[in-house]
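FW: tagging you since you asked about this chain on Friday. Here's the raw sequence from the shared folder, copied in full. Didn't touch anything.
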Amino acid sequence: MSQSRFAEALNGQIAYEFGASQQYIAIAVYYDAETLPRLAAHFYQQSLEERNHAMMMVQYLLDAGLDVTIPGVGAPETSFADVVAPVALALSQERRVTEQIGALATLARELGDYAGEQFMQWFIKEQVEEVSSMSSLLTVVERARDNPLLAEEYLARESAAEAADPTAPHAAGGPL
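HL: got it, structure written out here
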């Protein structure tokens, strides 16, 4: 059944999203330990976003009457060579997730699962934003390698409170 193939793949993506959330917590803790509070806060927030992406997928599966599997995840990387390495890892992770999301959308289309394909469209848009944002942050952190407080200043200037995206899918357990 095509829906079960998409559901199986989406359940796999839930694991990746939870894994990304854990990795972002590890990055945030690294920056906290380095007394770089804005970088830490940025990655704590990124962790919450990734967790919410997983929960959006959970809610979709629940709404579609499909089985949900909550997976375990591997341990995140916790040691970094310098202040640039965590952001480089985060960008690599976002690029990988972009490929995974694209593959899910492709699978849904191939299976004729139009609801699944439509659901994935928001994530495609989100990944464009995530890769762009992380690419910019990597550029800044690379320039500020010897003085990471400059990256802190950048985040202070550029991190305006983001409004919730009204087009985002509902996350399981989130506000109604």
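FW: The radius of gyration is 17 Å.
HL: agreed, and The chain has one domain: 2-157.
FW: great, closing this out.
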